[in-house]
Write a structure and sequence with these properties.
The chain has 614 residues and is an alpha+beta fold. It has four domains: 228 residues, no CATH class; 79 residues, Calcium-transporting ATPase, cytoplasmic transduction domain A; 136 residues, 3-Layer(aba) Sandwich (Rossmann fold), CATH 3.40.50; 106 residues, 3-Layer(aba) Sandwich (Calcium-transporting ATPase, cytoplasmic domain N). The chain contains 20 helices and 22 strands. Strands 10-22-21-20-11-18-19 form a seven-stranded mixed β-sheet, with helices on both faces. Helix 18 links the parallel strand 21 and strand 22. Helix 2 runs antiparallel to helix 3, helix 8 runs antiparallel to helix 19 and helix 11 crosses helix 12. The chain is elongated. The protein starts with a helix and ends in a 7-residue tail after the last helix. The structure holds adenosine-5'-diphosphate and magnesium ion. The site of magnesium ion has 7 residues, from loops.
């Protein structure tokens, strides 16, 4: 409990004691009003204060106003204990709410407890502990067992196991050794690591994730906006209705005012919309928190809300449904040594981060970057570069056509990377990739959750694309697409969905960032460090597992159903007591219990959204 909450608790306890004392005192001679004003002031001064301040600022109708009006009114008709009690209970509800919100915040913060406090940097032969912000790229940091990895980098000495649970939700430690890249925010479990820093702290994975989580609550779900707007119109209506209830029936029926004023006040207390105003955002907040426990980062409640309505899910192939780590399965050269062909291709690819490049480089081993100049990476085609003064093109058939090389298809199954030197065909490298282990299950799970259609888009050749799609049970596949074709395809598919349905695009962020932002919901493979993906997407899967899409959809539906339950329940109970109150069948006590009770139940229900099964 925070300091503020403790203070509130003391005020409530003191107010209760004073209220009991005031009720038991033999009040002779002292005016009752004064005696009850003491506990009222103790518990309610801040509510009255806020109500007055808001009126000054022109924002009249909020719950403070409702409570102030109801309780002052109760004092006016000499219902003293009731007035104090309403305020007391209202404050109990407020305390409860602040506690629940604080708890959800904390659990998200704990989850996101990835911000490193310091980095051990090697400088001038000794180790200094400094702020991660001050470490420069290419400096060497040392990460001891038990420490958080402060910056993204590459291991140059040592091996260890890393705990990545805060980033990916994956409990199994990941073994790393020299040459592997490490991501900030992971915890080094056992070995001492020397790491060469590859990005400044501001660009590190940790900073990106923290930004993302901090900004998530600013993107509101439709339901949240609706509730806010609803409260804006609802409260003035209620006040007017209460006023009419107090004035019209006594005049028409020629009865005394006090009974009807009492009913009007009850009406006011019941109509306070706090249960909704609090519990709806809290549910979405919980859903986002629950998702991040599974390594799913959702950038706003609007995306969480939309995900449950996913109707068409479109996938990129390489790196999304497949592992993106290709093995070289054949080398066919036209006029040179096969080793030379691979060396040429790997050298040309030296500056690219495309999965194909990474695989070719891994297959070849160390390369001499100084031989390469004028590198041009053409999305969906391949690479052009000058090597040893020759113009080398490495890519698909489209690229060969572009440079005017006469190329031919390969009979072998797999992705084919052609090479041309100065426009003359030099041969090709056949590489193959395999589907991620959970890819087929991921597609099946989506179907089960009611996704109408799954589609795969790829820049790879027809045979490879269709083979993969068939293996995974994908409904439609479009191959040999350039990045711009992918955007067009997604726009066409957009027209096939129903009015409320959503189109989801899932990609790895390489060559498909434009599509990620074009789709209703863009989901990216966070790939432990891929920057473009984290930026372009609305939802990021930290562990790159396509099966997490179904998990996220499950969390989305669950959160929505909790929200609906709360709306129906709160409005239902309020409506019932409102009618009873207007008919004079509910007392002020019942009204207070109904209001606070509904809030408490709705909040408790909302906190359920945070707990998800993995
Ligand atoms: P996908 O849609 O499967 O993710 P991309 O759009 O990234 O694939 O690439 C499509 C095709 O373009 C690849 O299959 C490959 O033939 C070619 N290509 C793209 N980038 C490169 C590269 N860096 N090196 C060689 N070929 C490339
Ligand atoms: Mg791709």
């Amino acid at each position: 409990m925070s300091k503020k909450q403790k203070k509130m608790l003391w005020r409530i306890l003191a107010g209760t004691a004073l209220l009991v004392t005031a009720s038991l005192l033999p009040l002779e001679g002292i005016p009752k009003l004064l005696v009850f004003l003491v506990p009222y002031a103790v518990v309610g001064w801040d509510v009255i204060f806020s109500a007055v301040r808001n009126i000054k600022n022109g924002q009249i109708f909020d719950e403070n106003f409702l409570m102030a009006l109801a309780t002052v009114g109760a004092f006016c008709i000499a219902e003293y204990p009731e007035a104090v009690f309403v305020m007391l209970f209202y404050q109990v509800g407020e305390l409860f709410q602040s506690y629940a919100v604080g708890r959800s915040r904390q659990s998200i913060a704990a989850l996101m407890d990835i911000r490193p406090d310091y980095a051990n940097v090697e400088r001038d032969g000794s180790l200094v502990q400094i702020d991660p912000d001050e470490v420069a790229i290419d400096e060497i940091i040392v990460v001891k067992p038990g420490e958080k990895i402060p910056l993204d980098g590459i291991i140059i000495e040592g091996s260890s196991s890393l705990n990545t649970v805060a980033l990916t939700g994956e409990a199994l430690p990941q073994d790393v050794t020299v040459g592997n890249s490490v991501t900030s925010g992971c915890v080094n479990i056992n070995g001492l690591l020397r790491v060469q820093v590859k990005s400044a702290f501001g660009d590190s994975t940790v900073s990106k994730i923290l930004d993302l989580v901090e900004n998530a609550s600013s993107k509101k779900a439709k339901t949240e906006n609706f509730i806010t707007r609803f409260a804006q119109y609802y409260t003035p209506c209620v006040v007017i209705a209460a006023l009419m209830l107090a004035v019209v029936p006594p005049l028409v029926l020629d009865q005394g005012f006090s009974q009807w004023i009492n009913r009007a006040l009850i009406f006011l207390v019941i109509s306070c919309p706090c249960a909704l105003v609090i519990s709806v955002p809290l549910s979405f907040f919980g859903g986002i928190g629950g998702a991040s426990k599974c390594g799913i980062l959702v950038k706003g409640s609007n995306y969480l809300e939309a995900l449950a309505k996913a109707e068409i899910v479109v996938f990129d192939k390489t790196g999304t449904l497949t592992k993106g780590s290709f093995n070289v399965t054949a080398l066919h050269s036209a006029n040179m040594d096969e080793k030379q062909l691979l060396e040429l291709a790997a050298t040309a690819e030296s500056y690219s981060d495309h999965p194909i490049s990474l695989s070719l480089k891994a297959a070849h081993g160390a390369i001499d970057k100084s031989r390469v100049s004028n590198v041009e990476e053409i999305s969906g085609y391949g690479i052009m570069a000058d090597i040893d003064g020759k113009k080398v093109a490495v890519g698909n058939g489209k690229l060969m056509d572009k440079v005017g090389a006469s190329w031919h298809e390969c009979h072998k199954q797999g992705t084919v990377i052609h090479v041309a030197i100065n426009g003359v065909y030099a041969g090709h490298i056949v590489i193959s990739d395999e589907p991620k282990p959970d890819a087929a299950a991921a597609i099946a799970a989506l179907k089960k959750l009611g996704v109408r259609k799954t589609v795969m888009l790829t820049g790879d050749r027809k045979a490879v694309g269709e083979h993969t799609a068939a293996q995974l049970g994908i409904d439609e596949v479009y191959t040999e697409l350039l990045p711009a074709d992918k955007v067009n395809m997604v726009e066409k598919l957009m027209q096939q969905k129903s009015v409320k349905g959503k189109l989801v695009f899932v990609g790895d962020g390489i060559n498909d960032a434009p599509v990620l932002s074009r789709a209703d919901i863009g989901i990216a493979m966070g790939g432990l460090g891929s920057d473009a993906a984290i930026e372009a997407a609305d939802i990021v899967l930290m562990d790159d597992k396509p099966s997490k899409i179904a998990t996220a959809m499950g969390i989305s539906s669950r959160t929505l159903s909790i929200v609906t339950q709360n709306i129906v329940f709160a409005l239902g109970v309020k409506l019932l007591v409102l009618i009873l109150g207007a008919l004079g069948m509910a007392s002020m006590w019942a009204a207070v219990f109904a209001d606070v009770g509904v809030s408490v139940i709705a909040i408790l229900n909302a906190t359920r959204a945070l707990s998800v099964k993995k």
